[in-house]
Amino acid sequence: MQSSAIFPLFYLPPISYFSGLKDFEGNFLIEKEEHFPKQTYRNRARIYSPNGSLDLIVPVIRGEKVHTKVKDVKISNDFNWQRLHWKSLESCYRNSAYFEYYEDEFARFYHNKYEFLFDYNLEILEWLLKQLKQNVKLEFTSEYTDDVALELDYRSNKIHFKNVEDNTIYKPYFQVFDDREGFKPNLSIVDLLFNQGPQAKSYM
Predict the structure, then answer these.
(1) Mean pLDDT estimate for the chain
(2) For residue 190, which of 58, 63, 37, 15 has the smallest C-alpha distance?
(3) Number of structural domains, the chain?
(4) Rounded Cα gap, residues 172 and 52, in angstroms
(5) In the predicted structure, residue 100 carries a pLDDT above the cut 60
(6) Phi then psi for 155, rounded to 5 degrees?
(7) For the chain, which terminus, N or C, has the lower number of CB atoms within 10 Å?
(8) According to the model, what pLDDT value does residue 140 have?
(9) Beta carbons within 8 Å of 163's beta carbon, 6+ residues apart
(10) Under a CB-based contact definition with an 8 Å cutoff, are residues 92 and 49 in contact?
(11) CB–CB of 110/82 below 8 Å?
């Protein structure tokens, strides 16, 4: 049985993702060989907009290959989704305390073109880990296996990420629009970074 925790690779992952990584102190693998599942954080992220929660979705090319391995999934650049995402991030976080602190480095993910979703998500994850001062060496699965204990298998959103929206688990921090709908827990890690800056590490 697989003894290391296995994490999927997400786009701008939720806070719970990084809490999970920290719990295993480097003893985890990033899943590279799974088939790409629909409607997951692998190509979407949730942020706090003036109108409430907003999902940012990276369009991908599916075609006839329904069972495409996640490492082989290509990004669809038929329309300028990067500009749309960047404009959304700006409108949501321009008035946050630390958006400008990260802006110059972070902007490259919305100006440079990427072919594969896995490569794109990986570059973002490496940058995010650096900002959170989580010094871990990323290692990857070499084959797909189901032989993983439930508590070590983070590949299912339903178990570990998608339903973690309990205010009692997450200590509230200031959010730009919390005067409208209150504190929203477990959003994308960028919500925490842009609002708390270097203090995000201690929040984890």
Answers:
(1) 90
(2) 15
(3) 1
(4) 16
(5) yes
(6) -75, -15
(7) N
(8) 96
(9) none
(10) yes
(11) yes
Domain with 161, as residue range(s), is 5-203
Percent of the chain with pLDDT over 70: 91
CA angle 45, 47, 48 (to 5 degrees): 165
Neighbours of 140 (CB within 10 A): 14
Burial tier of 122 (Cβ tally within 10 Å: 0-12, 13-18, 19+): middle
Chain centre to alpha carbon of residue 135? 17
Backbone angles phi, psi at 161, to 5 degrees: -125, -50
Q: 56 is written with which tokens?
A: 């940012």
DSSP sequence for the chain: -B-SEEE---SS-BHHHHHHHHHTTT-EEE--SSBPPSSSTTSEEEEEETTEEEEEE--EE-TT-TT-BGGGPEEP-SS-HHHHHHHHHHHHHTTSSSHHHHHHHHGGGGTS--SBHHHHHHHHHHHHHHHTT------B-SS--S-B-GGGB---HHHHTTT---TTTS-----TTHHHH----S-BHHHHHHHHGGGHHHH-
* 148-184 exposure pattern, b = at least 16 Cβ within 10 A, e = fewer: beeebbbbebeebbbebbeeeebeeeebbbeeeeeeb
Which amino acid makes up residue 44?
R
